[in-house]
Design goal:
The protein is an alpha/beta fold and 401 residues long. It has helices at residues 20-31, 40-46, 95-103, 116-126, 137-145, 218-221, 268-274, 283-293, 298-311, 320-338, 340-347, 375-388, 396-400; strands spanning 35-39, 61-65, 85-90, 107-111, 131-133, 151-156, 184-192, 195-202, 231-235, 253-256, 262-265, 352-356. The relative contact order is 0.10. Mean pLDDT is 85; it is low at 205-212 and 391-401. InterPro entries: DHFR-like_dom_sf, NADAR, RibD_C, RibDG_C, Riboflavin_Biosynth_HTPR, YbiA-like_sf.
Length: 401
Amino acid sequence: MTADGKIAATGGHASWVSGKASRGRVFELRGRSDAVIVGGNTVRLDDPRLTARHVKGHVPVRIVMSQSLSLPEEANLWNVNEAYTIVATQRGARRDFQKKLAMKGVEVVEFDMLNPRDVMSYCYDRGYLSVLWECGGTLAASAISASVIHKVYAFLAPKIIGGVHAPTPVGELGMSQMTQAIHLVDETYEQIGRDMLLSGFIQPIPDLSPVIPSVDEIPSVDPKVSPYEANIISFYKTWDTFGAFSNFSPHPIHMPDGNGDYFTWPTVEHYYQAHKFVGIDNPQARTIVQEIKLAKSPEEAARIGRTRQKEFPELVRTDWEATKIDVMYRAIKCKFSTYPSLTDMLLSTAGSVLVEASPHDLFWGGGREGEGLNYLGRLLMQLRSEILGTFPASVEAVDAA
């Protein structure tokens, strides 16, 4: 925005408010996001590409929210060769235009009532956990009001454009007094070229810092790690530097399926979720295992496993809580033994504490409020010690921790 809080001139022209360095930082933010969301007005006025241009690596999914589908026939976002595009709309909106988008390779998803909270729930179900709302003021206000925004990045350019009707970054929030203002906390300020970047979290905001093993625990997990001078390496998504450590990484493993046969599981997560039901003498349990085997992604396998576990608790093996660490460890060992490059990567972290930084998993990851147990990180450190010959080949010590 300009110094007087405008994101475009009165007529809508916005090229460019901020400088080249700031735009480069936005590309970096996109490159660290699972998905980028904009509204229909942004598509009509700016015709954006929403790719992580000039940044190598991951390209986020692009999501357009439009209730009426009053969108242009031709737009950069409809070119799915650059990145995948999803259009979220109200049920029944412009079915003819939906077909045209589908023919271009754009996925259209209908909602009974299109709103930011339901779109974010949908993103979560698809495995998009880090979502960048790069939208105009109207949709930004709606997202903030729905409490789906956790962090704000405000790029302030040393320009003044004026205009009562010039658009602003956030639309109407219904606040009539300054005492109602939303406060940003843990704010930081950074000069980027001639611009200033203000970033901060919206209250209330969960503590996203994962819990690492305590000073007393670390030696029991990896004797080579100094608890007082430990370097912490976090991993989460597969495009992170150490993201291949994730149980969601696309590394197939050849493991038994519980029937005496070996099966090539698409990911560790497929194997882990299926083994909640392996060995149960019930046709429905066997059907669930087969359903997880055929899941097209680890996110889908996780959804199936978790959903069926809640729906049919009687089909989950009775020893699951006691054996799930061992199941995960067997799968991890197979994965690292199958892919020597992963072993080299794991050994390169010797002396560091490994943290699975998921804010959503209280057992394997850090947890939303930092209360997670980080058992995946612990298992990886134990495997690292086992490979280096500094720890016996057992998971009992990790379980005891």
